[in-house]
Here is the input.
Amino acid sequence: MRRRAGLILLAFAVFFTALSPLTRWYAFPRLAKVPANQYQDMVLQARNANLLDYGTMKSRTVPQVTIVQTLKGNVEAAKRIEKTAGRDVVVWDGLSYVQGPDGKMVSRIPERYIFDAHSQEPVHATGEMVDGDPVRRDGIEFKWPFLTEKRDYEYFDAQARVTAPIHYRGTQDFRGVKVYYFEQNIPWTKVPFPRTMPVQGITPESVAKTGTTRWYTTVRKFWVEPLTGAPVYGEEIHQEELRGGTLLGGRDKVTAFAGHVKMREDYIRSTVALVKHNRLLIQLLTSTLPWGFLFLGVCLLSLSLCLEVRGRRPDDPAAGEEVEPEAVTA
Here is the structure.
């Protein structure tokens, strides 16, 4: 009986020990993915920013500029692309909407970002664009991969339409969450005008005829939770200038926008809470279950060996040959 129980325990020990690496290296890469129907929004603000007044073509200081960023998963587009891509794909239709202190639009830039649901690597397909211009992303955008590493990544800048390194600068604690801090510097770069201009009747084509060009630079900062790859906080030191041409009335350049853009406090709190929740799910698949299965397997193996040893003791009749009864005399 003990030997039978020992064999059963040994079988379970082998099963759970084998399940440990399978959970980490087989199940996790297939189960961890970004949902195709995910929707998220973010509100950022730049206080005491410089903003161009298109009526006077002069820059002035305003109390606040607000940037609303939305990302909406396009499930139908993802299904179409998956048929030819042969892998799980996420399509995010994004919109960056900037408004001044009076609530009027400053700029409105849509974009479509297509990426692998598991690795977050960009997937190139028809429809990938920024503000209507076809682009080819060669780096990540918005989200880092699951199990983010302490290294530099390639990050796509939607304003300049270029991919540039975003550098790992160290590990920090952000409101009780261990995060990796990343920073990217985009030098002054000539960028296109938005297709939707803040003044009625003015188009990028009409501005181009004046010879005036638009330039942009930024310092981009992200604090990323490494297990989920999700930024819990972000900032930008953002500057834009109009240079040359007849539109400026003989001036070399004028500031179109300059400000330190930060996430609004209520969105920081909600983002941290969401990332903490998702972090537990990733930790379950990458650490808790694999180590738990391994520990359980070792315990079951020890118990089965213990029963086997006890079953082989010489003084145990069940372990040896059958004992003949002694003769009884009167």
